[in-house]
Amino acid sequence: MPGASVSIRDVVVTYPGADRRAVDDVSLEVPAGEFVVFLGPSGCGKSTLLRTINRLVVPDAGEIFVDGNDVRGASPETLRRGIGYVIQAVGLFPHMSVAKNIGVVPELLGWEPARIDARVDELLALVALDPARYRTRLPRELSGGEAQRIGVARALAAEPRVLLMDEPFGAVDALVRTSLQDETKRIHRALGTTIFFVTHDVDEALRIADRIVVMNAGKIVQADTPLHVLARPATPYVEALLDTRDTVRRLSLLRVSDALSQSERSPGDAPAIAADATLREALALLLAGSTQLAVADRNGAFVDFASIRAALAASAAAA
Amino acid sequence: MIANASGFFVGLHVEDLGVRLAQHLLIVGIALAVAFAIALPLGVLAARNDRVRGPLLAALGVVYTLPSLAVFALLIPVFGLGLVTTEIALVGYAQMILVRNIVAGLQAVPAPMRDAARGLGMTDAQIFAKIDVPQALPLVIGGLRLAAVATISIATLAGKIDAGGLGALLFAGLDRDDPSRIVTGSLAAAALAIGVDAILRRIERVAIERAR
């Protein structure tokens, strides 16, 4: 089921007893199917803003629409059953098997047991876990990465059109984290679900976002594509938070296909690189001692230092 | 007689034992059922409300520390001799243990787990039934076990005020200077306590296994 558009309008949240607003008059239009990342330090309001979308937090002012419908239009439970929700691994219910955990929302919605079973198998396959091996396991028998995959599967069970992910990979180690990010991206491409993802990890945000929403002190400071945020930081705060002068970081967002150059010379025995590899990877290969790299399946095309520099300049200009 | 091992069993007073045991179980069963029915809402309220929790547990703690004989003595002028006085006293004693454990069990449910449940669209009642209860169950059953053992023991006093039970056997023995009744009543009460403790311990272990 494709994603829904989400419209956040003039939302204000003040926690009781707090001396300043947790979310301070925030507006954001999110088209259907976008992968939005709320990025910022703890206390910037990113989690609170996320939680207003499924009414876990009720704004003091402002409105939120999902597919044009005010989120206050139905009961909070009905709204939440239609919106996926993933938190850190502790959110799995330890007294329920993997299948029971994944089946929570379908069960709340009153699906037939056979339909739930089939859906559980489908979702385990989607998150790359063997249904036969995993459906009867208990959460304590899972690794951190596996538990998080189950968390994602559970959130997707009733085919939500919006998925909320609140620092979902904060508790897993770096290597597993990267593969979970790739999985999430892949699932996003496959399903087209609108995803809101909260993180304080800059590299994570750059890696997965269609659009990064940088937040500070309850306000949106900048909302743009990863490349644009890096190339044109709106404020010194964004510049510092993302360390935008680190151009190598920006190279990780550009592809070899962005920096193709046609060779007069024959590439000869230049090492090969895939067209969809990042320019950061290309740079690493060049630094290892080549003057140019032959791009696989693009006859005659190559990348070298000059073409990478040109691509970097072009990306800044485009931004 | 007690020193004589062969005479020991011969001397046990068994003719009343079945009836007294049944009475005792009934007294304890009613007390625990009523006590739990009261403790559950109190415990849920105290777990959710910081302002209720402190005073409530303090008040129940005071009841718990009163000497049981004194409580019976205070209740008899109002409720007379018999089952009602016994049950009121037993229910009062069990409250402290039950409420304290219900509160501890509910408060031990991790906040993120409840947050996930709410975020997935469970109602408050569903969160209670599907998350809080299974998670809190080991501590709640542990409380029931402690309360059961204490109640079995205190319920022997019922025999003194015409409510029957194993205490009746015991006190009859004391009155008539009949060691066989005393020994039978005491042993049966102890065996009952140990048996109930063992059964509930087993159930508690299953609950722990399922809640992890």
Strand order of the largest sheet of chain A: 6-7-8-3-9-10
CATH architecture of chain B: Orthogonal Bundle
Main β sheet profile of chain A: 6 strands, mixed
Largest interface: A-B, 26 and 20 residues
Sheet bearing the most strands of chain B, described? none
Low-confidence stretches of chain B: 1-10
Highest-level CATH class of chain B: Mainly Alpha
Q: Helical stretch count of chain B?
A: 9
Q: Tell me the series of helices and strands of chain B, N- to C-terminal.
A: HHHHHHHHH
**Count of all domains of chain B:** 1
CATH homolog superfamily of the largest domain in chain A:
P-loop containing nucleotide triphosphate hydrolases
What fold name goes in the CATH topology slot of the largest domain in chain A?
A: Rossmann fold
Structural class of chain B: mainly alpha
Percentage of residues assigned to helices of chain A: 25-40%
CATH level-two architecture of the largest domain in chain A: 3-Layer(aba) Sandwich
Give structural notes.
The complex is a heterodimer of chains A (319) and B (212). The radius of gyration of chain A is 22 Å and the shape is globular. The mean pLDDT of chain A is 90. Chain A is α/β, with parallel strands linked by helices and 319 residues long. Helices cover 38% and strands 21% of the residues of chain A. Chain B is mainly α and 212 residues long. Chain B has a single domain, classed as MetI-like fold, CATH 1.10.3720.10. The N terminus of chain B is likely disordered.
